[in-house]
Specification:
It is a single chain. The protein is α+β, with helices and mostly antiparallel strands. Helices cover 47% and strands 15% of the residues. It is built from ten helices and nine strands. The strands form two sheets. Strands 1, 3, 4, 5, 6, 7 and 8 form a seven-stranded antiparallel sheet that branches. The longest helix is centred in the C-terminal third of the chain and has 24 residues.
Length: 302
């Protein structure tokens, strides 16, 4: 087994629920020759600004978006990549795409960079960190942090059988000014609902989440699902704040610091307070409303 020494250590995730594609992207970049771009790429690809919320708070809502735009978004942030997917209804190319993905993973490991892949241990994105051609098995690092092994043949054929593999190759020649400009363009587009999604997305995700805290039906407000959504997006706001701060976007940095702090407090309140009580639900709702107002201001500035 040719295997890289990779863990999730060093990837900032204060809730433990950070959106798995963004966390995997950051970790892959941290374990690459261009590790200095690891935190920026979470924001420059737009993922630090993205939110998706389904009416029933199903966790799968965080995995329903335009997968085929991953490559363009990552490369807009200044890192070239290889992207291979196979979706439902593409059985005629299933084996061809799987073999292409296996080869892309092998080449990435040979470059010393883990590969990002969907559904390699749990039904989320994670990292492939090694391969064994003789045994035809991968070493994988799911988002749970428990290293496992997986047969080559199962790539794209596990619990949710689609293929989605992205590997990082090299830095592009994009200048910082262009990266920052396009990051704000992508972020604004998402916040204003310009990216396809079956569920509420961007700024519309706020009322979709808040209504469970203010309505008469409290089951979802009290559920683990609420914790999952708060925990998934809170860490991303930190990456947005840090990106704006690093690149001299002072007004946006002030706003996103407040956005992050309120999401993080909302997550911590969900963990520590009984949301069956109306005053506690109102506390969480108020924190999200404050973040919402700040992100609306941020979108206007963008």
């Amino acid at each position: 087994m040719k295997k890289l020494n990779v863990t999730w250590d060093g990837v900032y995730d204060p809730t433990g629920y950070m959106f798995s594609f963004a966390k995997s992207l950051c970790c892959a970049a941290k374990n690459s020759p261009f590790s200095e771009a690891a935190e920026d790429i979470v924001a420059s690809s737009g993922f630090a600004f993205r939110m998706w919320v389904s009416p029933d708070l199903c966790p799968s809502a965080t995995s329903i978006w335009q997968f085929d735009r991953q490559k363009n978004w990552v490369e807009s942030g200044g890192i070239n990549c290889v992207y291979i997917e196979r979706m439902w209804g593409q059985e005629d190319v299933e084996e061809e795409r799987r073999l292409d993905a296996v080869e892309a993973v092998r080449q990435s490991i040979d470059r010393g960079i883990p590969a990002i892949s969907w559904d390699i241990g749990v039904c989320e994105w994670g990292l492939i960190i090694g391969y064994d051609d003789e045994a035809k098995r991968f070493a994988v690092l799911p988002i749970t942090g428990k290293e496992e092994e997986m047969d080559y043949a199962l790539l794209g054929k596990r619990e949710l059988p689609i293929l989605n593999v992205l590997t990082l190759t090299e830095r592009t020649d994009r200048v910082t000014e262009d990266i920052v400009r396009d990051a704000l363009r992508i972020a604004k587009g998402h916040l204003q609902g310009e990216e396809w999604c079956e569920n509420a997305s961007g700024l519309a995700a706020y009322p979709a989440l808040i209504r469970h805290l203010e309505g008469e039906e409290t089951a979802l407000a009290c559920s683990w699902n609420m914790e999952y959504f708060l925990g998934t997006y809170a860490p991303l706001k930190w990456y947005a704040w840090q990106f704006c701060q690093r690149h001299g976007l002072e007004e946006l940095a002030v706003l996103y610091r407040t956005v992050y702090e309120n999401w993080q407090k909302a997550f911590e309140a969900k963990r520590t307070l009984d949301l069956a009580l109306e005053e506690n639900r109102q506390t969480v709702a108020a924190l999200l409303k404050r973040a919402w107002e700040c992100e609306k201001q941020a979108a206007d500035i963008m």
